[in-house]
Amino acid sequence: MVLNEAALGAARRSLDKGAVTPSSGPWREDIIKLLNDSLATELVCVLRYKRHYYTADGVASAGIAEEFLVHANEESAHADRLAQRIVQLGGEPDFSPDSLTKRSHAAYDDSKDLKEMIKANLVAERVAIEAYSQMIILIGDKDSTTRRLLEDILSDEQEHADELKDWLVA
User: Fold this and answer.
1) Is the model more confident about 42 or about 17?
2) CA 28 to CA 31: how far, in whole Å?
3) What Pfam families does this protein map onto (predicted)?
4) Domain residues of the chain, as ranges?
């Protein structure tokens, strides 16, 4: 097995491209679009969890509201990691508020009832789990760094869903 010398030579040049090398392949733009849609999803989730954190009311709400804030911060960290990867791939992270809800896989929610908040967040986490699972399959071995990032985020989303399910049945 021999490495592609032409690709190695190209990697030695074009230093202004940073992490983008010939092995990034023709699917780089498609991956950037998937990541930007995921970025929108994470940002909508931050907004939904923050709204629920500030408006949760009732006997059991204090502890759950605190967890909503923890989830909001974790979703924000996911958004940061996605934006960073988009930049590494030579793209531009799309933070445009005008298109967030159109590009997001998950919905915003302004429920006032604690149980409905939990349910809305569980639905959103399940949607995120499905979206990340599909993206991981689509990316496969085309971009192992992005795949590992998505797998890591997927693990967090699965933890969130399990926690929310436990609250819903409690």
Assistant:
1) 42
2) 5
3) Ferritin (PF00210)
4) 25-169
